[in-house]
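FIELD: query
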Amino acid sequence: MKILQVTDTLSAKGGGPPMVITRLAAAQAALGHNVTLYCYQTPPGDAESPTDDRRAQGRLHQARLVRGGRLERVLPRGAMRDLSRVVSGYDVVHLHGVWYPICLAAARAAQAAGVPYVLAPHGMLDPWALSEKALKKKVFLALAYRAMVNRASLIHALSDYEAQSIGALGYRPPVATIPNGVFLDEIDPLPLPGAYFAAHPELRGEPFVVFLSRLHPVKGLDILVEAFAIVVRRVPGARLVVIGPDWGAEADLRARARTLGVADRVHLVGPAYGKEKFAAMVDAACFCLPSKHEAFSVAIVEALAAGCPVVISEQCHFPQVQSEGAGLCVVRTPEAVAEALTHLLAEPTARGMMGCAGRRLVEARYTWERVAELSIRHYEQVVRQ
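FIELD: result
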């Protein structure tokens, strides 16, 4: 099958979609399909989500378009001309994101060529996302993007929650849940226990909770640090390790930690990648993400794959964590988060059982290999329609 994957950018500043599209494309190529990534050129100096050429074995290609001036950012005529020339050579087009003019151009080009397209909103059509800059999004939907959604052959939701949210909006296409995943061979073998403690002697070998994500207000760091202040009163040796780049929440986190009197036990270590982040998860007592909203958090899956029990808010929309015994889903309050963290810090046996359950859950449902196979089955269905 020839697949065209389209998104706005592969820049790491684009958040989740750039990472997802490169991983999904590599997994599809590894299954023997020919996949092309199509997006605008990454601005000079920006880090980019890497493609996995080794895994793809020559079947993963890239096509980059110069972004152009301000008009192109609203009316993507350059993208439309370029895509119109090539889209007929593909069996299916997969769009990632809603509010990107390049996706609008790809949808129109695909429709004109009679090629089916799948749309993955990446959480952009659920109630929380639509409430942000609501008037602007209503205008965009009315002008062009509602038609783009309705003309898709399939809407790709990342979770059952997202599928239900999209269904409630009354869009015409069917909705299928296709989650994100991980490549286990990039995680295994896990770092040996104690490696992160050895690299961070300031932790003094004391039990710690790890947060690993962007330091963005939506991620719930305000709730986490207030919960941690409660935890420290119950487990005096506890520490909090915060891993990730600052997206606007670091200053507030530092200020809250000082006000709450726990700044000496909150360690902001910046971003971590590869084995370094998995070493943190191996040594952590648990992972915590009390987000306001998640379409699908790869960080949660990575923690589960590393055998790290998780404490997450209900707004992470990952109920399988609790139903499969891999962690705790809690109400998004400092008290509820603190209760869950205190329980795990005090119960090493429970942590071990949850860690094993989390790893089994990932192996069964959340590897990129399984996700790619599921996506291909859905592509085949829309092509046959």
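FIELD: remark
Residues 321 and 327 are 5 Å apart (CA to CA).
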